[in-house]
Amino acid sequence: MRRSGGRAARTANPERGLAQRLPFAVFIAVSFGLLIVSKVYPTLNEQVQGVLIDVAAPVVDVLGEPVTAIRGFGTVVADTLNGAEKVEKLRAENERLRRWRDVAIRLDGENAQLRALMRVSDEMRIPSISTRVVSDPGGPFVRAILLDAGAGKGVGKFQPVMDSSGVVGRIVTVGRQSSRALLLTDLNSRIPVFIRRTGDRAILVGDNSDRPKLAYLPMQSSARIGDEVFTSGDGGIFPPKLPVGVVDFVDGPTVRVKLAADLSRLDFVNVMAYVPLEKPEQSPVAQPLETLPQGASVAVETGLDRPSAAALPPADPVLPSPPLIPAPRPAAPADPAAPAASASREGAPAPPAAEAATDDAESPDETPPPSRGGT
Amino acid sequence: MAAALHRAVIAMRTGVPFVLGLLLAVLSFVPYGSPEFSVIMPSLTLPLVYYWTLYRPDAMPLAAAFTIGLWQDILVGGPLGLMALLLVLTRGVIENQRQVLLTQPFAVGWLGFALISAALTLLAWGLAGLWWDHAFSVWPFIAHWGLGTAAYVPLAMGFRQIDKLMYEQA
Q1: What secondary structure does DSSP assign to A184-220, as a single string?
Q2: Residue B35 needs a FRET pair 20 to 30 A away by CA distance; which of A227, A312, A354, A364 works?
Q3: Under an 8 A CB cutoff, do B77 and A173 touch?
Q4: A215 domain residue, yes or no
Q5: At a CB cut-off of 8 Å and minimum separation 6, what does A279 contact?
Q6: What CATH number does the domain containing A344 carry?
Q7: What total of structural domains would you count in chain A?
């Protein structure tokens, strides 16, 4: 085994010592330089990462196959061992869901009637893109996952990512074939939410723990364990009324939420092709009515400028559209809700709104399913 | 013919640890189905750079350590350069100390790894805190370090086998 020269050798031959140290110093400087540049120019960092994840994701995907297969085998073995118990549990759940289906059908009918009465015509279906989760966070710094779908399938920045139970996070980096989603538990995650029972608005703040906390709750908030938390749609980044989780810890001002999404079983997720709201000053609403182009009536009505499902890039596979998402209310500049929404995006508390009113009267038993279709 | 074979052997000797490093970096990110484990998942590249710098420094040049670190940074999606910095530091520091460590039994080498990985974990904790403007909880980092230190033993045994294959049979 060859041994490179140590301190004595360098002392005897200072030029050789310098030649050894120079590359070391250069690599240290380059590493520090990269650290500083990625901090000072976050947009550049994001663009570079967007290109690089298209290289990284397929490699992680291929190497993860054996692990995924072993996990799948383990699940099959566990299911086989607990088969009878599972069947009984699923049967009970099926029965419960059947009752909820009846409730949903009745509410859907009522909803349609009320919409017709109120002449609310712009009910949107947000298509979603089903995609595989390629990677775990893998370390103590970031709570983010790589997804096997990118801009080529219609994934865009800020789009909500959901599993079958609730919100998982949002897209932060988009490559051509892959993307990265920041989980709600990440310390950089901030999403506006409301508590269904009280209507209190807050910001769900990740802190790298498995239970994010609610910040900017009103002083007089009476949040309690078991309260359901949904996205509020404030700020226009997320659609409203997506299920987030339930309050499971309250200690004075500290309120924590247990996520509805199961972060330990993120094999597949849905990315909702939701286009964030424009700022009011960029909206056609800000233009005088007579200057609006023909066919802009919907935009005037909703303050939105979103592509229709048909205008989005083809997604493969596109799941059947998720539950109906109601159109957010008009966001005209004169509307006091608009600045409030912008403020909440910056992390400021937003006032409670009437749309968060409870509808507990419809709960026949247990925890009701998320009411995403209500007006 | 003999010269070509010699070049191929040299390329293999430097290429194998490098490719192994890239693969081990990926192994930290495959979905194991446990968010708790994922958070404390040890860095498998640190033992790799430590081992090869200690026993076969020619097979782990600075550029290789830097590239493996940068690859890991890309996978994390956080600050570019952080892991690259840690691995380059490992390469530089251990190269300076290898004369001392090589004459010691394996347990001392392991202790050396535990010490340098503790120092680097502390540095990573500090730099990450500065980069994100956030005081990270130290516990995931301590668990991360502990698991990494424990993982060094089986990893070093595996590296030793690869080392034997490449140098004693090639």
Answers
A1: TTSTT-EEEEEETTT--EEEEE--SSSS-EEES--TT
A2: A227
A3: yes
A4: yes
A5: A342
A6: 2.40.10.350
A7: 1
The answer to whether residue A41 sits within a structural domain is no
Contacts A45 to B, Cβ<8 Å: 79-80
pLDDT digits over A197-237, tens only? Answer: 988 999 999 988 889 999 998 888 888 899 999 998 888 88
For residue A128 the two structure tokens come to 């979603």
Amino acid residing at B69: G
Instruction: Give domain limits for chain B.
Output: 2-167
Main-chain phi, psi angles of A211, to 5 degrees: -125, 100
What pTM was estimated for this model as a whole?
0.70
Nearest in space to B31 (alpha carbons), one of A86, A184, A166, A269? A269
DSSP string over B17-33: HHHHHHHHHHHTTS--S
Q: Report the candidate in A248, A139, A364, A341 with the shortest Cα–Cα distance to residue B29.
A: A139
Check: CB of residue A285 under 8 Å from CB of residue A297.
no
The boundaries of the domain holding residue A206 are: 121-355
Residue A4 within a domain: no
Token representation of residue B87: 């691995």
Question: Which residue of chain B is at minimal alpha-carbon distance from A146?
Answer: B75
Give the closest-approach CA distance of B122 to chain A in angstroms: 12
Dmax (CA) of chain B: 59
User: CATH second-level architecture of B2-167?
Assistant: Orthogonal Bundle (1.10)
Q: Is residue A53 part of a domain?
A: no
